[in-house]
Amino acid sequence: MSSESSKKRKPKVIRTDGVPAEGKRGKGDTDQDVRYYSEESEVDLRDPIKDYELYRETCQELQRLMAEIQELKSRGIKENASEIDERRVQSCVHFMTLKKLNRLAHIRLKKGRDQTHEAKQKVDAYHLQLQNLLYEVMHLQKEITKCLEFKSKHEEIELVSLEEFYKEAPPEISRPAITLTEPHQQTLARLDWELEQRKRLAEKYKECLTSKEKILKEIEVKKEYLSSLQPRLNSIMQASLPVQEYLFMPFDQAHKQYETARHLPPPLYVLFVQASAYGQACDKKLVVAIEGSVEEAKALYKPPEDSQDDESDSDAEEEQTTKRRRPTLGVQLDDKRKEMLKRHPLSVTLDLKCKDENVLHLTFHYLMNLNIMTVKAKVTTAMEMTTAISAGDLLSPDSLLNCLYPGDHGRKTPNPANQFQFDKVGILTLSDYMTELGHPYVWVQKLGGLHFPKDQPQHTVAADNSLSASHMELTVKLLRSRLQSRLALHKQFASLEHGVVPVSSECQQLFPTKIVSRLVKWTAIPYEDYAELPYTKDVIEAGLAEDTHLYYMALIERGTAKLQAAVVLNPGYSTLPPVFSLCLNWKGERNSSNDDNIRAMEREVNVYYKELWGPKPGYQLLTNQLQRLCMVLDVYLETEPHDPSVEGPKEFPQEKMCLRLVRGPLRLKPFKFNYPQGFFSHR
Known about the structure:
Blueprint lengths: L1 H7 L20 H17 L2 H28 L5 H69 L12 H7 L2 H4 L1 H4 L3 H65 L3 H11 L4 H16 L4 E7 L1 H7 L7 H5 L1 H10 L5 H12 L5 E8 L5 E9 L4 E9 L37 H8 L8 H4 L4 H6 L17 H32 L21 E8 L1 H6 L4 H5 L8 E9 L2 E9 L9 E7 L3 E3 L4 H11 L14 H18 L18 E2 L13 E3 L4 E3 L2
Parallel strand pairs: 10-12
Antiparallel strand pairs: 1-2, 2-3, 3-4, 5-6, 6-7, 7-8, 8-9, 11-12
Helix pairs in contact: 2-4, 3-4, 10-18, 21-22
Organism: Cyanistes caeruleus
Keywords: Nucleus
Protein name: THO complex subunit 5
């Protein structure tokens, strides 16, 4: 059975076209090498797809044989042993086929890997070549960029334009036939022409240097001459000082003043220049000067210097500073206020001289942090004036310059920004410091060229010469007129306090020869007392009485009749007339509210004041008004009807000649005096 089965179970040999059959396993090494080589060559000839189909068929066949063997074994019949052996042999053959296919697959895999490796090496080589080429390209691009960005020195040279080049350059340099078509040759030609021009300019520069050295030598010679001339001029100036004083031409003093004026702040400098110019051109009696410390003014504009001595002494002072108390808040505010109200060390003084040698001294200061100017006034009289109690406020520095222009009281700062500065340091109003600082009138700011518009506030206000020049002449005239009017009032008040109403000869025709009523009292009263009088309410309500005005009380008597006159004197006297309010104490109290004739008496002095101005500039207006008041009081008393119930003669006999005693339903009296006829009539 075994021999027969072995004969029947011959292994299958897989053959392919052109490939010899496999040998047995018992052969030598040479046969194995030949077989290995044959399989590698066979791989190239076989189709992998067909091998895959063979692999599938073999696997299916193996599955079938295994299933049959399983089925035969399960039957348990001994006759099936031969069939099982036969199918086992067939399975072994199929296993041999699978092993061969496995070897072929491994060979194909190895060849595929080898081919992949070779291809990868080729790709790496090509990639390396590509990187080398890219590097070369990048290097070339950098070189190209460097070449394109290269700036030659000739690009920094400003060459002449092409039109000028072809117009001025000679043909041997310009060469139009070549340079017009070739830009490179054109640039070279322009550079050659530039070089030629520079050579010419260099030669000219050398010539100029030689001439400059020659001129410098001449200048040095003239400087030596001038330096030797200065001492001679100084000696001549010293010798001419008596001549300058004799001819009233102080050139040396003026030169020193102008040297000092360089250190003035801009507003004071504008005031100094404009006042000096006006004094030289129009007003020889206006004297302008500068006062103060020049050294302190120079120190204001010096930069702070670092002191090494302070650093070296800091250790020694450390113990003292630790013992000192820290300043309180009140002390700090006081220091801040002082710094805020700090004045410039230099000031400008104006001396206004009148014909009678009376002088008004004005000192102008500049507050640096507030950017405003202030003024202080002082009066010097040629003769000693009689002291009058009621004239105390006339020449007072606080009231002398009030309302020089209408509404300019000088109590508030004209700079709107100052109020915010005051709030920071706790200053309520500037008027608390005006005794020391002076008054910041608006006309003072304008003389310094400062203007502070309220509708359009500005951050910085600069001094304007034209503004100062436009206000200088009128302001000087107003100041001189104010001084003369106040001095005239001062003299008149001295007489009024003694009961004498001074009337000049030019004004005698305004009054009758005999006036019986007399002034018995003339005193100054405060605004509060004036406001409390019952017969002055109309004047206050009309806005004719303000706290800046001067107030006086006059008492006129005749017999038992006493006439009180409350007088409001405007600071602008005599341009603005005084205003009288009357009250007659005779047979009761009579004033303008209950007596039409008292109102008519007030009208005579308040409305028809132009008749009483007298000779210009009208400084006798006040005394003429008082004299007329005495006159109309006589008319009022003499024209009163006699009371028949009273025995005896009439208290005030009629001495004035009147055409009619009364007129109209108001029974007004004739208060108008007619000269030279000497009678009284109605208006």
